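TA notes, week 10

Several of you asked for a full example with nothing omitted. So below is the full record: C-alpha cells for the whole chain, then the designed sequence directly under it. When grading your own attempts, check the secondary structure regions first.
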C-alpha cells in the first residue's frame, strides 16, 4: 500500500465514532510506519472534521429517530449517553464546563472523545465556538497521549503482549 493511501486510511479511521484519533494514531505509527508528526496532524483534522456537523445536526437526528416505531432503541441509547456525558460536564458549574469538556475529550478512555463530547455539548446548548475550542484542545491532548504511547510501543518500551522492558 502506498504511503498516500495509508495516510488516507488513518484520516478516515480518525473520523469513525468510538475509534477516532485514539485508534488511528496507533495504526498509522505502529502498523503503517508513517511519520508521526504527519500522522498526528492528519488524525487531528480527521477527528475534528465531523465536529460542526455533530454539533448542528446530531441532536436533531437523534430526537427524530427516537420517535420511530422500530429501531428507536439505538437513538434513545445514544441520546441517553449524551445526556449522561452532559451531566458529568456540568457537575462543576459553568466555569468548569470548558475544562471538563476538554478533559472529557482529551483523556483517551472508552466512551469519551470528540463525538461524545460534541454531542453532550450540543445537548447542553454550550456555545458552538466554546465547544469547538474545548473539543479541539481535547483532541490535541488525546493525540499527544496516543502519539506518546504509540512511539513507546514502536520503540519496544511497551510490549503489546503486556510486558514492559527497555531495548
Amino acid at each position: 500500500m502506498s504511503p498516500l493511501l495509508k495516510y488516507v486510511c488513518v484520516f478516515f479511521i480518525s473520523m469513525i465514532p468510538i475509534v477516532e484519533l485514539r485508534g488511528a494514531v496507533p495504526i498509522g505509527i505502529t502498523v503503517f510506519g508513517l511519520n508521526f508528526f504527519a500522522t498526528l496532524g492528519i488524525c487531528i483534522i480527521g477527528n475534528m472534521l465531523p465536529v460542526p456537523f455533530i454539533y448542528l445536526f446530531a441532536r436533531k437526528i437523534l430526537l427524530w429517530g427516537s420517535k420511530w416505531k422500530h429501531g428507536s432503541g439505538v437513538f434513545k441509547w445514544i441520546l441517553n449517553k449524551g445526556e449522561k456525558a452532559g451531566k458529568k460536564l456540568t457537575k462543576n458549574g459553568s466555569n468548569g464546563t470548558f475544562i471538563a469538556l476538554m478533559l472529557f475529550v482529551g483523556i483517551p478512555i472508552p466512551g469519551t472523545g470528540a463525538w461524545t463530547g460534541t454531542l453532550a455539548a450540543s445537548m447542553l446548548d454550550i456555545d458552538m465556538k466554546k465547544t469547538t475550542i474545548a473539543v479541539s484542545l481535547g483532541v490535541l491532548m488525546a493525540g499527544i497521549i496516543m502519539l506518546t504511547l504509540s512511539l513507546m510501543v514502536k520503540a519496544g518500551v511497551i510490549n503489546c503482549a503486556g510486558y514492559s522492558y527497555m531495548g
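Residues 65 and 75 are 6 Å apart (CA to CA). Use that as a sanity check on your answer.
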